[in-house]
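Blinded run. Sample ID left blank on purpose so nobody reads anything into the name before looking at the predicted structure. Input follows.
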Amino acid sequence: MVPVLPLLLIGLPLLCVLAAVGAVPWGAVAAVALALGLLALVLVLVRKERAPRPDGG
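Blinded prediction complete.
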């Protein structure tokens, strides 16, 4: 599985720097951040569904 956290820690600041110098519009940075947040939420929910329950069910 792709390590998401290191990609976020490197990618988001890089996008912000690109937006600050005008290479990328801020709307694109916001869209990418929103998409990554939703992806992380989905991954957490999927992981909780797959985890075995403590009561054996």
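Unblinding after everyone has recorded impressions. The mean pLDDT is 80.
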